[in-house]
Design goal:
Arc Repressor Mutant, subunit A; alpha+beta; 10 helices; 46% helix; 284 residues; 2 domains
């Protein structure tokens, strides 16, 4: 029987829980979405305490340690992507789907404030997440249903909604326009045509001749340099968590070729992307 795309994903739902032991998959967990449908208490993430309430999403990454202090019975769903899920994207029959999901997840991974719940930009998205998680958990946990087609499409929709609601700079920055520009850059990082000065100027109603100066005045770094640095962060994430080749990563992130990525990566990490990938494999 062929492998399914859900072989290395764990989906759990707890109803009206007063105690939660979620960390059982932590050593092999790569990425996790917590959806708190109902309840109140404190979620402790890496010793940072944050109050939680109804209809809140939290995002967790490999190094995160967390636990719950429950005040009122809590209904919570968790989607855990295990380390092995994205590791074999070159040979797995579901590689196209996995790559699409990884693009969404890496966008979420580089959000600014993961020790707080996700702020939805609209009530529509908040309502949609509730409905989608209900479908996902019902489908996954009912052995008489469990349609992989429904599971795939539902989870893809969840990732898409989360990724478009992630903010990428500190909430201490009060300029909503620069926040919107940063969010736009991260969301469209795989589409170079949307990241030209002309396109950004049109999108945010700023003069094409002024937008670079405006960006640097707000962020302390040039627009072109910021985009390049973010692409290098994404390249590092892919080198760490997938077996994609340097050539493939270079192509997907808009570098001229693998040599271009290697040369740029030297400035970023002090070694080529290829050497960094070999180092990572040697440390496993």
């Amino acid at each position: 029987m062929p492998r399914t795309i859900f072989e290395n994903i764990v989906i759990q739902k707890y109803e009206e829980a007063t105690v939660l032991a979620f960390c059982q998959y932590m050593p092999i967990r790569f990425f996790e979405i917590l959806f708190i449908e109902k309840g109140s208490g404190t979620l402790i993430i890496n010793n940072h305490r944050v109050a939680y309430n109804d209809n809140q999403i939290f995002i967790l990454i490999p190094s995160d340690q967390y636990n719950f202090e429950i005040e009122t019975p809590t209904t919570v769903s968790a989607v855990k992507f295990l380390n092995s899920f994205f590791g074999d994207m070159l040979s797995d029959e579901n590689q196209i789907q996995r790559k699409q999901w990884f693009k969404k997840i890496e966008t979420i991974l580089h959000g600014a404030n993961r020790t707080s719940h996700l702020d939805f930009q609209s009530k529509t998205d908040e309502s949609s997440i509730l409905s989608l998680f209900t479908v996902l958990c019902n489908e996954y946990n009912d052995e008489n249903l469990k349609s992989e087609t429904i599971l795939k499409s539902t989870l893809h929709s969840i990732l898409h909604i989360i990724s478009r609601n992630v903010s990428f700079i500190s909430k201490d920055i009060t300029d909503s326009k620069i926040q919107s520009i940063i969010n736009y850059i991260h969301y469209h990082i795989h589409d170079s045509e949307k990241l030209t000065k002309k396109e950004l100027a049109n999108q945010f109603h700023i003069s094409e001749n002024y937008i670079s100066q405006y960006f640097k005045s707000k962020m302390g770094i040039g627009l072109k340099k910021y985009i390049l640095n973010y692409k290098l962060k994404l390249a590092e994430t892919r080198l760490k968590h997938t077996n994609s080749t340097v050539s493939e990563i270079a192509h997907e992130l808009g570098f001229t070729d693998s040599s271009h990525l290697d040369k740029t990566f030297i400035v970023y990490k002090g070694m080529t992307a290829r050497a960094y990938q070999i180092t990572l494999k040697g440390s496993k």
